[in-house]
Amino acid sequence: TFIQDGENGLIFPAGSPSALALALEKLIRDSDKRQEIGTRARQTVEEGYTWEKAASRITEHLSHVLNLKET
To answer: Are 38 and 8 in contact (CB under 8 A)?
Structure first.
């Protein structure tokens, strides 16, 4: 998965303001953890979402779609 809880982000149930508040409180209270998660999150995006990788995924998708049309 893209986000790993506690590593490069915090995961909490959608639609739960109290869970969001708890996650934010953790980050507010722990500056070291906040810095670690921020650093890892940036690294995840920089490594996984380059223009080259985006172009490659688009090319793969288009190839798949074109192969489906041929059959």
So the answer is: no
- pLDDT confidence bin for 1, thresholds 50/70/90: low
Q: Read off the tokens for 2.
A: 């893209």
For 11, how many CA atoms within 13 A lie in the half-sphere containing its CB? 8
Nearest to 20 by CA among 28, 29, 11: 11
Contact 37, 9 (CB under 8 A): yes
Q: What digits encode the pLDDT tens for the residues 38-56?
A: 999 999 999 888 899 889 9
Please give the full DSSP string across 44-63, using - where no structure is assigned.
HHHHH--HHHHHHHHHHHHH
What is residue 7's three-state secondary structure? Answer: coil
- The pTM of the full predicted model, rounded to 2 decimals, is 0.69
